[in-house]
Amino acid sequence: MDRRRLHRLHPGRRLPGRETTAGQAVAEAGLSVPDDISVAGYDNTAFAALGPISLTSVDQAGRHMGHSAVRLLLDRITDRRRPTTRVVLSPTLVPRRTTAPPAERGSLPSP
Length: 111
Prior knowledge:
Elements: H1 3-8, H2 19-28, E1 40-41, H3 46-49, E2 56-59, H4 62-78, E3 92-94
Parallel strand pairs: 1-2
Antiparallel strand pairs: 2-3
C-alpha cells in the first residue's frame, strides 16, 4: 500500500489484512500512528497489548464465548428437547496508543 492509496482513505475506513501488515503498510508510506492515521485490530490478542505495539483493539469476549458454548452444549446433551438458547455478547473497544480522535490527528501528507 503506497502513500497515494493511504491518502484516499477516509476516517472509518479499514485497512485489509492482519494488524501487523497494516502497521507495515502505514510505516512504508511514511505515516505516523496515530498522528496521521489510526489503526485498530479486532481480536485483542496478547500481542496487541504489548507495550511497544499497544494496538487499539476490539475484544470479542472469546473466553466468555467459549464458556457459553460449552455450557449450551452440555445443557443440550443433558436434555435434547431443550429449546434453543440465544446468547448475545457485546464486543468491547480497548483503546490503546494506535488511535486518536480525528481532531487530534494531523492531515495526511500530500502524495
